[in-house]
Amino acid sequence: MNRLIILSFLIFACNNTEIDKLGETREGLPDAESWNATITLTNKGSKRAIIKSGHLEKYQQRQYILLDQNVDADFFNEDEIYTSNLKSEIAEIDESKDFLIAMGNVIVISDSGVTLFTDTLSWDNVDEKVFTDDSVVFITEQNDTLYGIGFKSDIELNNWKIMKPTGVFHDGSNEQ
Fold first, then answer.
1. How many Å separate Cα 25 from the centre of its chain?
2. Is 141 helix (H, G, I), strand (E, B) or coil?
3. Confidence at 87, pLDDT banded by 50, 70, 90
């Protein structure tokens, strides 16, 4: 009987030691964090975006960055000339695919004055395209306001398409 008590005590003691050695794990926690962060994204060696956020979390193994406070991104063309600005509540960057998704009150203003409003917007840095399947409000250089669901364009918002336009457009030519 003594052997049974001693054996069960040893097994219990070993188990406790293993648990104590493990302590807290880092599973699910970021590898790095930064506040008032600025990051630069490039494509083929040229600056394509400078992104600022109040808070950044970096997950090295997943090649993932979370920007979760007041995202403000300036975009540049292949000649590194400023083309547009994006603002959103949060953004996620998949570093392995060079892909950004902006979420929450997304506003994009191009240097030509075109403005896009949507809830989410994806930017593929490799293909140099932005797109969404959500509803959009698009204001042209002539201050025409267009509505729709789904949108794709280049980052300059020069060559754009609203996938499912909604609403009514009056061009003024039939007015008396």
1. 27
2. coil
3. very high
Residues ≥6 apart with Cβ < 8 Å to 143: none
CATH number at 117 reads 2.60.450.10
The boundaries of the domain holding residue 94 are: 32-166
10 part of a folded domain: no
Give bridge partners of residue 57 from the DSSP assignment. Answer: 33, 66
C-alpha to C-alpha distance for 169 and 166, rounded to whole angstroms: 9
Give the pLDDT confidence of 29-81 residue by residue, as tens digits: 888 899 999 999 888 888 999 999 999 999 988 889 999 999 999 999 889 99
3-state secondary structure of 40: strand
Count: domains in the chain: 1
**Widest Cα–Cα separation across the chain:** 106
User: Is 26 a member of any domain?
Assistant: no
Average pLDDT over residues 118-135: 93
For residue 22, which amino acid is it? L
